[in-house]
Amino acid sequence: MPHGSSAHRFAKALRKVPGRVAIMTALLTVPFPASPALAGSSAKAGPGAEYGSYPSTYKPLPSRETAIVNASILTAAGALIEHGTIVMRQGRILAVGKDVPVPAGAVTIDGTGKWVTPGVIDAHSHLGVFPAPAVKGQVDLNENVAPNTAEVWAEHAIWPQDPNFDRVRAGGVTSMLILPGSSNLFGGRGVAIKNVPALTAQAMKFPGAPYDLKMACGENPKSRYGSRGRSPATRMGNVAGYRKAWIDAADYLRKWDAYNEKTARGEDAAPPKRDLALETLAGVLKGEILVQNHCYRADEMATMIDLSKEFGYRITAFHHATEAYKVAGLLAANGICVATWADHWGFKMEAYDAIEENAAILAKAGVCVVMHSDSAERAQRLNVQAAIALAAGRRAGIDIPKTEAVKWFTAYPARIMGVADRTGTLEPGKMADVVMWNHDPFSIYAIAEKVFIDGALVFDADDPATQHRSDFELGQPAGDL
Amino acid sequence: MFCKWIYTAGTAAALALAGSAQAETIAIINAHIVTPGPVGDVPEGTVLIEGDRIAAAGANVAVPASAHVIDAKGAPVTPGLIAVDTMLGLKEVSSVSGTTDNHTTSPGISAALDVQYGLNPDSTMIPIARLGGITRAVAMPDYDDSDKQRHLAFAGQAAMISLEEGPDILFKPRIGMVLEMGEHGAQRAGGSRAAEIIRLRMLFDALQHRKQRGKADTGGTGLSAADLEALRPVASGAMPLIVSVHSAPDIRQALKLARDYRLKIVLNGAEEAWRAAPEIASAHVPVMLTPPSNMPSSFELLGATLHNAAMLNKAGVEIAITGNDPTHSVRDMRFNAGIAVSRGLPYAAAIEAITLTPARMFGLDGQLGSIAPGKIADIVIWDGDPLEPLSGPTAIFVAGKVQPMTSRQRELRDRYLEPAP
Questions:
Q1: Does the beta-carbon distance from B335 to A356 stay under 8 Å?
Q2: Of A331, A345, B180, B264, which sits most exposed with the smallest number of CB within 10 A?
């Protein structure tokens, strides 16, 4: 195995991190409804993650039993299998390995010279809410009329005809976390989706995935509202705004707890009035909704960690986090992942200290690193982002093996979206979200040749008939994907 | 060995030695020379640098005894990359207006804006871009979009800059005039593309004295005397007009304008150029483009595709490949060249699109853009394929001077490489 010794060193580094096991357990034991029918049940009493949600109607597309043979397979579960075979059956991965028999009747794809990875997962996307064309009438990214809009949900605005869904699918993206923007302290709920062609957001909604709350630090909220003569105008105001909201959320939760206790005792009680914003925040305090926190500066991340401890919630990931490398130990100790870019920097002061080695330094410290896009263009090549970050690490003497770096755009984004038990690695039983590349995915020349979602071939570079194009692009001068 | 010193590219010792060897003779031996031009691809060659120039390059180059020798050990050696459509030296932090000198709202200064006077050689972006193998860049002005008047017809004049360490980064001023057409150009002309073109036609009619009666009418562009003076070389066809334009219909209008007034133009952006490739080729108009720009983000980008670069090359159009933005992501230009290769652009054409073609677009190919005797010694030694993210430069020479392999980002890296206990 190439980079064997560094892989070992890396695994050791991960083991040393206190709290690592605890995070994974915490993420995996969040009580997900198991089926689309349950997801979105509005029958539950009280505030919570699923309360008031509109159900996922996602159904895996028709698939045929398929085997890719003789490929270099990066499982994102630690292995690089040379001359390996992967078999997909009924939407699931049936087997992966060197000596896996190809079932009779399976569609067999010659993977000679090809590479196979899990489907790419983008844990920071605005597709559908900031769609193309991004023209008047189309943009639904920020409900930027108040600093706390925890009541809005991205899924209520996703435009499934965003032509960029098709483009990122051609780049191998099989799942995404669609987040509201970062103008507000609390931007609203994000939603995990599967990147299938669909007519409704409900039909894309990742069945059983937890919800997310988008929070934002720093320049965006303070400049948005400070320039309008209202709080927050400073980072002080930002933190005061978070604290006020969490105090309200804790109070709201107590009212519902009291109500639930009374009704459990058989007493008559009037339910508290629902409050959409507090419902979402309460969902975070109950551990059901994952916090995805836009935050660039090291010092602000430390403050946000203190804030989370003050109110008893977990931060799942800091996003962008261009200074995370300065506090790698703190993030590792608190089990917080970092979703970042490889080399995006300098567009504002809080991004001035971004370095290409951010991911590698974090990885070395045992932080789980996610290459995110925040753009439809970057999302088409998250593998290249990983390659840039990997190369920077190598130049600095941090030799992370590809078997680990592949997790930056597969297994770890699945983890921070709370779906790591279902997708993100190539292991038997998982969703057959799979990409076959024509080259090593860490090469600039790599193209996603075949993309499978739940075992269904949703993009084939050689077969235009498989290449879905949005309604918007019909009758327009669109070029090839 | 007959040489005074031998060292390997990429070692700190080599750089220190070479640093003290300015204006002396440097021989890069065992080089895999990758360059456009007659030297071509030489799997095992030597590049000889004397002072600021390339003295010789090829398979059979005699190395003088006095030369400092760098053993490239078979690594690729290319011309320094030339970035087009940048604001290097004109901007530091995008959101901090005190650090941005790439545009103005001054009503009397449109075409007259000359970026050579706003260059900041201390910008941290310069060494950061240089570590991406970039040794020269076209620094271009743009428009201030916060200016709701949008009265500026032209953004101003571009300069070729050098990315060398030191106080003087200006290489050649006034190499091109920047004009934005398409949707944004139309907005500056009151909201209609037709109005913008009428305005431009009135302007060039006046500058070329095509209309005899009465005073020259500059079409309400609000251009000052200084602006009109700055536009004279454009009107005479001496200075390229760098036209930012996206859709195929707008590209055709730009070509027609250039034909009618015999202007030398360069198309910039040109995401739908593939739809007008034969016309662009027959007009001998070069194109600056960004291969990953494939999203229908506006109605003038509906035809944007990853295949644009390859299709234009196939049609015989000269292309230069940019980074992902004009500032902080300029260094990604080599990856963008690789992306174009992944979609069918021949490798040699991709290398040319980031070296010689940008030089040729501005008439500087006699001095820059390839490894050839007599040219300025802008040279990069790489540890692998220069288009691959997993590769990077190990040594960079600008005008024969070895450059430090440091930047503010590298210093931040080194400060935080070992985590705090």
A1: no
A2: B264
**A11-53+120-422, which class in CATH?**
alpha beta
Q: Is A281 an interface residue toward B (CB < 8 Å)?
A: no
**Token pair of A154 as six digits:** 């991205």
**Residues B183-220 pLDDT 10s:** 999 988 889 999 999 999 999 999 998 765 555 566 56
Confidence band for B24, pLDDT divided at 50, 70 and 90: confident
Chain B residue with the nearest C-alpha to that of A481: B305
Helix (H) or strand (E) segment spanning residue B159: strand B154-162
Domain coordinates of chain B in residue numbers? 5-79+383-415, 81-368
Q: Give the helix/strand (H/E) hosting B359.
A: helix B356-361
Are A413 and A177 in contact, with CB atoms under 8 Å apart? yes
**Residue reference for tokens 């007959």:** B2
- How far apart are the CA of B279 and the nearest CA of chain A, in angstroms? 17
What is the 8-class DSSP label of residue B288? Answer: E
Task: Return the CATH number of the domain spanning residue range A61-118+424-481.
Answer: 2.30.40.10
- Give tens-digit pLDDT for A85-94: 999 999 999 9
Q: Which of B383, B417, B418 to mutate to test the interface with A (most CBs of A within 10 A)?
A: B417
**Which residue of chain A comes nearest to B125, CA vs CA?**
A346
Partner-chain contact A397 B417, CB within 8 Å: yes
Among A43-47, B153-157, B408-412, the range with the most confident prediction by mean pLDDT is B408-412
Q: What is the DSSP string of A381-428?
A: GHHHHHHHHHHHHHHTT----HHHHGGGGTHHHHHHTT-TTTSSS--T
Does residue B14 have a pLDDT over 50? no
Q: Cα dist. B60→A331, B2, B38, B39 in Å?
A: 56, 16, 14, 11
pLDDT, averaged across chain A: 91
For A25-49, what is the mean pLDDT?
38
Q: How confident is the model at residue B11 (pLDDT cuts 50, 70, 90)?
A: very low
For A110, other C-beta atoms within 10 Å of its C-beta total 10
Q: Do A133 and B387 touch (CB under 8 A)?
A: no
> Pairing state of beta strands B170-180 and B154-162?
antiparallel
Q: Is the pLDDT confidence value at A252 over 60?
A: yes
pLDDT, tens digit, 9 for 90 and up, residues B350-378: 999 999 999 999 999 999 999 999 999 99
Which among B272, B299, B416 is the nearest to A361, CB-wise? Answer: B416
Q: How far apart are the first and last CA of chain A?
A: 35
Whether A347 sits inside 8 A of B328 (CB atoms) is: yes
With a CB-CB cutoff of 8 Å, which residues 184-243 of chain A face chain B?
Answer: 219
Is the pLDDT at A6 greater than 80? The verdict is no
Are B303 and A361 within 8 A, CB to CB? Answer: no
Q: E strands, B9-80, where?
A: 25-33, 42-50, 53-58, 68-71, 76-79
Q: Which residues of B touch A397 (CB under 8 A)?
A: 417
Query: What confidence tier does A2 reach under pLDDT thresholds 50, 70, 90?
Result: very low
* Mean pLDDT, range A233-237, rounded to an integer: 98
Domain spans in chain A, listed from the N-terminal domain onward: 11-53+120-422, 61-118+424-481
**Pairs of residues, one from chain A and one from chain B, whose beta carbons lie less than 8 Å apart:** 146
Predicted pLDDT of residue A45: 43
CATH class of the region B81-368: alpha beta
Task: Check for a shared fold between B5-79+383-415 and B81-368.
Answer: no
Q: Tell me, which fold does domain B5-79+383-415 have in CATH?
A: Urease, subunit C; domain 1 (2.30.40)
Two tokens, residue A188: 């609203």
Report d(CA A47, CA A203) in Å as an integer: 24
Task: Say yes or no to pLDDT of A42 above 60.
Answer: no
Which residue from A minimizes the CA distance to B410?
A355
Enumerate residues 6+ apart whose C-beta is below 8 A from B251: B245, B267, B270, B272, B273, B276, B279, B280
